[in-house]
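can u do me a favor
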């Protein structure tokens, strides 16, 4: 054993731990010149498995002499650590700093993200730390420096933390290109990925290391799972859960009991699926236990960075009793005080639940404890399915981000700023990435034309010419182009945000402009854990104050786009397995025993959705005629499927139809009976001409026009403005719509238009999953049933319809009446849920 490894073993021993075999295996592989993907449960030491390989190599190398005081030579980082979220960067610096400084005191560990001050960034540029923690966007910004090659000329290894979070997204594609750039300058660079929640490990590894790795690569997995204890919170015997809804406040009392039962200095982390839900739960917890004021925290991505960091510090110190959070605290943040994770609402995916579970018991040998809080009756089934899937280690697979030409165009401008590039060399480098391994010559020419003169349609406009040929090297055209590009780097796009701020200037965070635009003076809404009163919209700031008098009633909660998460394919398949078992009389586990009256009622009235056949129900209410179909393909696929079926129906006979959906199925409503037989459904659910019909059914141009704004922003067609003077959402929308219409009219085959349409189908409607569902249905018998009343599964879909049509009060009354009718139908058995 080398001297460095002996020192590392001694460091572990002095800390009271013994290294795991998979950690030692990763260290040996790194020292042998390999790279790879480390896959192990959260809290078992993945970070140290990735760190000590490169660190041990440095420890065995001859020590470099300290630089002279007047030495201006840049000595770049030795280890680059990539994190997907800024909140994780500070935590990683704390986790890495102690072992690094204990073993190599001359090394510094620092973060470089958007939260780091300009003065620190300037110092880092002159004297970089040996271990630099950064994000994909900050790394790309560094590649625009003229001296980026010198800056990274000592770089030995790159570690990509939480690789699953980047994999399959444009951010992942952006990182693939950045890594290819670094490997071009440092051919022997070692790349390591770290994750706990990837189902297709070998594919994830290939995407990480690229198509032409200079080092051997393999997966290093822990041979044992971390122990999970997953419990679903259920109402008392006399209680029941609603059939619809997504807040879960019916079980607030049980959650309060579990939090109160934690020991001193112990915390609960409550995860919600949306920011609006997090705001409501924080307020309800505070209202129920005002004596906990000061011991409750709120954390989500729209809150001001200082507010988030304050909550993180208090969690780390163990001074919070509970914190309500969204996915902003999902990733790798190590809070030793957290003993319990509460998942409010279905996790919608096994990997997401496993990731969040790892936030509790975040220590080797500790049990990760999760309390599931279903927000409606059918989510009880999803929690049972999630536990079974995790027991069988069935995790969702992650796909590559694909050939995103808008990201490639952005990368070309980035490379033109780092002393420029030669086209043939850069093309070969780009093709070493998994995302662009099949990049054609025509697609490359399109990207080059796009950044040099805007392409065929836009070449008359000088502002689209950003890169020019300078004596055989392609360089950025001018300083204005360079500045705008640096401000636009990244692939994260969202609806336009406005600052929420008090009249005297203190900012609380951001809400989307379309929410703020609907407010009038005096309106009240919940944000940042408090009730605020809207004063006015000034200079793109939502000005608020604290109300002087309390006002009864439910206050508005901001809604952010992108909050809906569809049921994953893996979890949906497990739900069908449980339903198949219930149809055969198997009700194992507390969740299924609780749901037994409801499932037996569904079986008597119509049948249970099944993997063996497709269940289709029709019934009449005073709202009209309703058809319910249960493919269990997830909300996004059902949105596309319901609209497709309605369009195909109306194509044959003019009809006024309405569609509604959830994760389990979709509903089509009409004023008169549709009279559909099994043969009719075969045609309506045919996979033939799927993409063509789907685009027509959904008004493909309008959907693509909206998606094009994101594509155009990433590609550099649209500039969102300088700091302090951003363009309004209306202006950006008008610019992108004009560009879309111009290209559609004069260059309909434009590759960015094609990409926007493809992304609509892939990202918004999950066309691959929809297609798979239709192929599965084609091989299944159809059970078409007419019922004299709504079934339990039908009620959950019917709730989607009346919620959109009625006020809160009338919805509640109507819904209670429908549930009472269901319970009367179930008399003679145990009380219906």
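np, heres the sequence
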């Amino acid at each position: 054993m080398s001297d460095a490894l002996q020192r590392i073993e001694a460091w572990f021993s002095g800390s009271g731990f013994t290294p795991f075999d998979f950690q030692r295996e990763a260290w040996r592989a790194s020292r042998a010149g390999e790279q790879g993907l480390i896959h192990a449960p959260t809290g078992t030491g993945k970070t140290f498995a990735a760190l000590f390989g490169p660190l041990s190599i440095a420890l065995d190398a001859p020590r470099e002499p300290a630089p002279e005081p007047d030495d201006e030579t840049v000595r770049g980082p030795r280890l680059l650590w990539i994190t997907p979220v800024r909140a994780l960067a500070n935590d990683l610096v704390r986790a890495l700093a102690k072992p690094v400084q204990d073993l190599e005191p001359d090394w510094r560990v620092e973060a470089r993200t958007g939260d780091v001050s300009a003065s620190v960034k300037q110092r880092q540029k002159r004297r970089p730390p040996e271990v630099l923690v950064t994000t994909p966007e900050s790394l790309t910004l560094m590649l625009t420096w003229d001296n980026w090659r010198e800056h990274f000329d000592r770089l030995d290894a790159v570690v990509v933390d939480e690789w699953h979070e980047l994999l399959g997204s444009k951010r992942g594609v952006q990182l693939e290109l950045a890594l290819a750039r670094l490997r071009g300058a440092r051919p022997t660079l070692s790349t390591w990925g770290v994750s706990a929640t990837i189902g297709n490990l070998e594919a994830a590894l290939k995407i990480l290391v690229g198509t032409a790795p200079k080092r051997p690569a393999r997966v290093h997995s822990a041979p044992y799972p971390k122990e999970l204890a997953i419990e679903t919170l259920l109402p008392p015997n006399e209680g029941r859960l609603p059939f619809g809804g997504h807040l879960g406040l019916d079980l607030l009392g049980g959650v309060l009991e579990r939090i109160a039962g934690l020991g001193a200095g112990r915390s609960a982390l409550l995860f919600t699926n949306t920011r609006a839900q997090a705001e409501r739960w924080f307020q309800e917890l505070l209202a129920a236990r005002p004596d906990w004021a000061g011991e409750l925290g709120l954390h989500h991505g729209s809150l001001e960075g200082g507010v988030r960091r304050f909550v993180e510090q208090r969690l780390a110190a163990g001074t919070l009793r509970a914190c309500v959070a969204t996915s902003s605290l999902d990733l790798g943040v190590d809070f030793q005080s957290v003993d319990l994770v509460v998942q409010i609402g279905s996790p919608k995916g096994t990997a997401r639940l496993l990731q969040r579970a790892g936030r509790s018991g975040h220590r080797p040998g500790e049990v990760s404890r999760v309390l599931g809080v279903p927000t409606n009756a059918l989510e009880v089934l999803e929690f049972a399915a999630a536990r079974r899937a995790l027991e069988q280690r069935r995790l969702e697979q992650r796909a590559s981000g694909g050939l995103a030409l808008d990201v490639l165009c952005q990368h070309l401008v980035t490379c033109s700023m780092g002393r420029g590039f030669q086209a043939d060399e850069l093309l070969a480098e780009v093709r070493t990435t998994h995302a662009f391994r099949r990049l054609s010559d025509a697609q490359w020419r399109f990207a080059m034309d796009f950044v040099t003169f805007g392409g065929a349609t836009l070449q008359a406009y000088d502002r689209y010419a950003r890169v020019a040929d300078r004596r055989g090297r392609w360089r950025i055209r001018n300083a204005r182009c360079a500045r705008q590009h640096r401000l636009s780097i990244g692939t994260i796009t969202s609806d336009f945000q406005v600052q929420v701020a008090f009249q005297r200037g203190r900012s609380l965070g951001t809400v989307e402009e379309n929410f703020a635009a609907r407010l009038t003076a005096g309106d009240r809404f919940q944000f940042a854990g408090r009730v605020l009163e809207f004063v006015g919209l000034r200079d793109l700031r939502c000005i608020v104050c604290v109300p002087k008098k309390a006002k009864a009633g439910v206050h508005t909660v901001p809604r952010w786009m992108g909050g809906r998460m569809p049921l994953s394919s893996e979890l949906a398949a497990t739900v069908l397995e449980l339903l198949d078992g219930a149809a055969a009389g198997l009700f194992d586990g507390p969740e299924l025993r609780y749901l037994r009256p409801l499932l037996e009622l569904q079986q008597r009235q119509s049948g249970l959705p099944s993997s063996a056949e497709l269940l289709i129900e029709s019934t009449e209410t005073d709202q009209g005629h309703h058809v319910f179909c249960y493919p269990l393909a997830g909300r996004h696929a059902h949105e596309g499927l319901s609209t497709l079926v309605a369009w195909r129906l109306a194509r044959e006979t003019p009809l006024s139809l309405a569609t509604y959906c959830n994760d389990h199925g979709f509903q089509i409503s009409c004023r008169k009976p549709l009279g559909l037989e099994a043969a009719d459904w075969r045609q309506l659910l045919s996979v033939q001409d799927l993409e063509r019909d789907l685009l027509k059914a959904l008004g493909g141009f309008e959907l693509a026009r909206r998606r094009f704004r994101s594509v155009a922003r990433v590609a550099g067609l649209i500039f969102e403005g300088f700091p302090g003077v951003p363009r309004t959402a209306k202006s950006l929308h008008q610019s992108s719509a004009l560009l879309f219409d111009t290209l559609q009219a004069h260059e309909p085959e434009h590759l960015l238009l094609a990409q926007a349409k493809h992304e609509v189908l892939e990202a918004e409607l999950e066309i691959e999953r929809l297609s798979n569902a239709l192929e599965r249905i084609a091989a299944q018998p159809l059970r078409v049933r007419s019922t004299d009343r709504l079934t339990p599964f039908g009620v959950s879909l019917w709730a989607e319809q009346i919620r959109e049509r009625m006020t809160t009060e009338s919805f509640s009354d109507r819904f209670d009446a429908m549930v009472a009718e269901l319970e009367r139908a179930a008399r003679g058995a145990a009380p219906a849920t």
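The radius of gyration is 28 Å. hope that helps!!
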